[in-house]
Fold NAD(P)-dependent dehydrogenase (Short-subunit alcohol dehydrogenase family).
Amino acid sequence: MRVVIVGGTSGIGLAAAARLAAGGAEVVVTGRSEERLRSALKQLGDQARGPVSGQVVDARDTGAMRAFFEGLGTVDHLVVTVTGRGGAGPLSSLTAEGLTEAWRNKLVAHLLTAQAALGVLNPEGSITFVTAASAGAALPGVATLAAVNGAIEAAVPGLAVELAPIRVNAVSPGVIDTDWWSEIGDEARAAFMEGAAESLPVRRVGRPEDVAATIEYVVRNAYTTGIVLTVDGGGRLKA
């Protein structure tokens, strides 16, 4: 089983790569940073039971993604975990440039990456998008994030029918403690994580490994398609 994880050099993508590689899959990871790629490959190589490789490529560069897949050959499963900054904030502070960048960094990157892989994707394989539980959130300042992630999730059922028998699913994480939060500073991050943990039924925030387990499920389960699986510690249950 050959799995490509676009955005697989850190956070949730790296955790998914580690889990699948430990389970014997051949894993290919991509990322935008040469340094992160080297670090990821070293980490994966220490625990992999199957071949592991990677390449620096920007998922927002459609031409580069097409060339990457053409050079790779047949792929059984594609997992797209790429995300981006921008888009968060109250309506009063949003700009056209920020909105455009938010859509380009995630929605456009996810869908065009899937498009680029179609020529080499095994018909019995799958595509898994990693979105975010903000798609269903009703919180101040997350309208753009909700719109971007919600758009990807809305595309899943239609793509599952359009691309059949290729399976198409999405995994939607809640608050996961990754470097995505690093820009708010250590103190603010710790306070936010503590508050989030107290508010969740499971009484902790998520770890990348929690999401990786769900990604592995939808990759390996050949009878699952057209669904969005939420992994949020019960966050959606809050009043």
Remarks:
- The longest helix spans residues 96-117.
